[in-house]
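Hey team,

Sharing the Signal recognition particle receptor FtsY run so nobody has to redo it. Sequence (300 residues) first:
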Amino acid sequence: KQFKDGLEKSRKGFVEKVADLVIRRKKIDEEFFEELEEILIGADVGVNTVLQLIDDLRGEVKKRKIEDAAELQPVLSEKIRDLLRGDEDNSLHLNPNGTTVILFVGVNGVGKTTTIGKLAHHFKQQGKKVIMAAGDTFRAGAIEQLEVWGQRVGVEVIKQQAGSDPAAVMFDALQAAKQRGADILLCDTAGRLQNKSNLMEELNKIYRVIQREIPDAPHEVLMVLDATTGQNALSQAKLFGEKSGVTGLVLTKLDGTAKGGIVVAIRQELSIPVKLVGLGEKMEDLQEFDSEQFVHGLFS
Ligand code: GDP
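Structure output:
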């Protein structure tokens, strides 16, 4: 899915509400701003960001002497575009001389396995040699689920038994990557986010194993977040993201929520870039995050 299809629910639940408001109220007054504020908060844009946005809009209304509510809609999309735009790098960092190692962390159910499968497909389509490592040895069924994706996209999965040491799986996977000359190694982890010290302990052990083989790896540590959980996703990222070496966020299930405003909130409140977005359950439904395409998908 492309941004336009994937963002249909957000377009209906958020942008069309703004359009209705504009038609209904016609005039820009206090009540107009109050209702607009409610819509934006309802779309999970985040209270602080909404207050800022409303303030900016008031300023623009004054400056441009806007009276008709309809004229404000393009200004709103422009402001949201400004909030999303940044000089940070949204693209995945790949290793130019050898295997690129990408680690995934995230709580159960956010779409971690699915994202790994989709990304394996994406790289395979580009003609790259991909290996997946079943490092989530903790969750029942995680290994089998990754194997299903492996078969689906035609990518080898390195695994051990359930309950085994994820660092040992990673060691095997690195050996396999070396032997086969793999371009990309995608590593699932249990990433136990219930507890920060557990997560750090597990990640540090994995980092050590990886760095013994490839000193500048992992090249990306992606934290997977479920967009349908809205502000919860944001607090997970705040709590665990910034100090655990996370280099990018993956926001899944954007197709399943009307609250696409969460992307704006994350962009405003975190210094970690959103690198990928999930726009459906199929293997093609993963896109690199692009603020222009996002705003375009939302507003048109
Ligand atoms: P994990 O426990 O984090 O590995 O989560 P899974 O990969 O098993 O995903 C949990 C559920 O979310 C599955 O039913 C997936 O099909 C679904 N899912 C994952 N990503 C997306 C997405 O971008 N859009 C939609 N609609 N569903 C998704």
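DSSP finds twelve helices and eight strands in the chain.

Ping me if you want the raw files.
A.
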